[in-house]
Design brief:
Length: 244
């Protein structure tokens, strides 16, 4: 059952999704003609964004969501390749950081190390990390200036967006003050540490399914090392990311 312009016709695992025109679609064209105009759409399932870029440039794909790192290349080929790049503005998708606040257990063992969990559930700690993120630099360096800073998990396009939410602009001094307010102990050399363990080594796990997750992982790592934290990177595929 569908009320959109297309209905699912066929799904081929790891290859393609085929949609056909919905003959009962409610919207009509300017002259009363049935919409949509295109009777059939095939979505190719391509796991690698590099592969999809090659397929588009060779003519195998008719459209492509242009990743930031490919924008300048495709822009140079726009006229010669007989295609047009549209900048539709921010999408509903966003890159975000989340801490595992789960205090539950699995087979009698805590899902998150209790010592780390104590940090993650500390409001001062989370606010300090937020102030330690230079999002303007990330927009320019990772998204090639094509991204937008987001101050809420709800995007600007949503009717539920609240423009008056608290904003955490980059402020490393405020971040340090919040860490001290959270009574987080430090080692002799100034690094923050966890009671009961050696110098902190928090694990940052970007999703491999998100191409931009690869460069911002090291970027986050560098930011928080400036706040006297030690981090390790452990990229995971999406399914394993949710499980962990």
């Amino acid at each position: 059952m569908v009320n959109g312009p297309y209905k699912l016709t066929r799904y081929v695992t790891s290859q393609r999704v085929i949609f056909s025109k919905n003959p009962y679609y409610w919207e009509k064209g300017p002259n009363g003609e049935s919409l949509p105009y295109i009777p059939r759409v095939v979505w190719a399932i391509v796991e690698s964004t590099d592969t999809s870029l090659l397929q588009f440039r060779s003519g195998s794909l008719d459209s492509l969501g242009v990743p930031p790192e490919s924008f300048s290349l495709l822009k140079q080929e726009e006229e010669r390749g007989n295609f047009v790049i549209y900048n539709g503005g921010p999408t509903y998708a966003s890159s975000y950081l989340t801490f595992n606040l789960n205090q539950g257990k699995r087979q009698g063992k805590p899902l998150v190390d209790p010592i780390k969990s104590r940090w993650f559930n500390n409001l001062n700690f989370r606010q300090a990390i937020a102030y330690g993120i230079d999002r303007e630099r990330m927009v320019n360096n990772i998204y090639r200036g094509l991204g937008e800073k987001q101050n809420s998990f709800i995007p600007v396009q949503s009717p539920f967006f609240n423009p008056d939410v608290k904003v955490y602009n980059y402020d490393p001094e405020k971040a340090q003050a919040l860490l001290k307010a959270g009574a987080l102990p430090t080692t002799i050399n100034g690094n923050y540490w966890m009671i009961g363990v050696t110098v902190s080594a928090l694990c940052l796990i970007p999703m491999l399914a998100i191409k931009c997750g690869k460069p911002w992982g090291p970027k986050f790592k560098k930011i928080w090392e400036n706040l006297a934290f030690k981090w390790t990177l452990a990229p995971l595929v999406l399914a394993c990311w949710w499980t962990n």
